[in-house]
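Lab channel / #folding
Pinned by the channel admin:
"Please post every new chain as: sequence first, then the structure tokens as a reply. Keep commentary short and put observations after the output so the thread stays searchable."

First post following the new format, from NK:
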Amino acid sequence: MSDPVLPARPATIPAGPSAPRPSSPGTPSAPRGAARDPAATATAFEAAFLTEMLKQSGLTKAFGALAGGGGETGFSDLLTREIATEIARTRPLGIGAAVRQRLDGGGS
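Reply from TO:
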């Protein structure tokens, strides 16, 4: 006798590059339109890199020490991400340019 809650056979998962990929929690999503716009994708990649670099530098801890309270970590992470996005937009390091060149089909 089969279980009425579970299906009789497992659902098939499509394979190949067009198969949907589950996103894991904590994985930042690309900005709207970034999939079609190499410039936006490149800037988002540079901002993500800068966010991690700033977190490792201790910037997040400095914000936490000033704010206090239970939500300090979440807000300091948001502030760090915004600072990184602004740096990537106004004073890029060149990482985004390299990513954009690669997305446009240039480089090897």
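NK: Helices lie at 38-56, 59-67, 72-90, 95-103.
TO: also worth noting, Residues 38 and 100 are 6 Å apart (CA to CA).
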